[in-house]
Amino acid sequence: MKNLKRDIMSKYNNLKFLKETKARISHTCYNCRKEIKKGEIYYPESIGRVNAPGIKLRKFCKECYEKHGEKLLTLE
Ligand SMILES: [Zn+2]
Question: What is the CATH number of the domain that holds 24?
Fold first, then answer.
């Protein structure tokens, strides 16, 4: 039972993808700390329709996405 939570977490990590989104409010890029302004395109991590409270979803700016692509998902 002890490893159950970690198993669930890694299951969700495998489901993660970057979803192109237009910012409705301003955000901060997790990678470069740049401000993502309202109305700009950014790439938040998403796990689709799965409801997973406690899963930390990060947000990345367009420049970081263009530079690193899906590799952003494996950043620590
Ligand atoms: Zn960035």
Answer: 3.30.1740
How remote is the CA of residue 3 from the centroid of ligand 1, in Å? 33
- Provide the residue range defining the domain that includes 40: 4-74
Spans of the chain below 50 pLDDT: none
The reply to whether the predicted model has a pTM over 0.85 is: no
Residues with CB under 5 A from ligand 1 (ion): 29, 31-32, 34, 61, 64
Q: How many domains does the chain have?
A: 1
- CB-based contact 39:22 (threshold 8 Å): yes
pLDDT of residue 1: 55
